Amino acid sequence: MPADSAADSPESNLRSALQRHQIDLPSEQISLLENYCQALWDWNAKVNLTRHTDYDKFVARDVADALVLSRHIQPEERILDVGSGGGAPAVVLAILRPDLTVALSESVGKKARVLADIVQNLGLALPVHHCRAEDVLAAQSFDTLTARAVASLAKLLVWFEPYWGAFDRLLAIKGPGWVEERQEARQRGLMAKLQLRKLENWPLPGTDSESVLLEVRPKS
Questions:
Q1: How many Å is the maximal CA-CA distance in the chain?
Q2: Is this structure's pTM higher than 0.90?
């Protein structure tokens, strides 16, 4: 076996991508993330789940987004991810923050089945709800809802307006159009009883734009 074969292993490629983005993680988390990538990308050939199909894109978008979320979530919070798709960034968040109780919701049947298979093979205790998040909220309560690339801010607020008693806040990852989305929500009267804060912004790789993390919660 060549002396440098270990450096060419998939995990080393992920480790290198993490290093290029100056992200330092424990080895056990890197191993879990590697397993997640491989399972996700294997399924992606059959079911369209992600466009982030190399380590640099995965780290720059999915890991980076999960790390931003992590900085704004308190220990042992109960999280419900809305429209989980292939599991990013929610599964990544669960790997980075094993103290959290993370549940996934996905209304598209084939995506929910794939997500359940991935989670099971990773050995993660993450319930996957094959239904809309609203149906989960009708029966359970959470500290925080998370959402990325699911719907406009106005749509999210319409969906969850009846369920504010079942969760405390919404954390939404948005792109450069978030200001227009906020304006639409205000014009439709959806912000009358809510307050919105921009918690953090970070570069959107490959563009001159940025991602933002928005927090929405009821006014005091």
A1: 66
A2: yes
CA end-to-end distance (rounded Å), the chain = 64
Length of the chain: 220
State the number of CA atoms in the 13 A half-sphere of 188 facing the CB: 15
Give the SS3 label for residue 67.
helix
Identity of residue 56? D
CA dihedral 103, 215, 205, 5 (to 10 degrees): -30
The structure tokens listed for 188 are 């439709």
Query: What 3-state DSSP class applies to 22?
Result: coil
Q: In what order do the strands lie in the sheet with 101-105?
A: 128-129, 101-105, 78-82, 142-148, 167-174, 210-218, 194-203
Q: For residues 69 and 46, is the Cβ–Cβ distance under 8 A?
A: no
- The closest of 185, 117, 127, 128 to 151, measured between CA atoms, is 185
Contact 24, 36 (CB under 8 A): no
Compute CA distances 74 → 79, 113, 129, 202, whole Å.
11, 30, 23, 20
* Residue 219 and residue 194 in contact, taking contact as beta carbons nearer than 8 Å: yes
Per-residue pLDDT tens for 107-148? 999 999 999 999 999 999 999 999 999 999 999 999 999 999
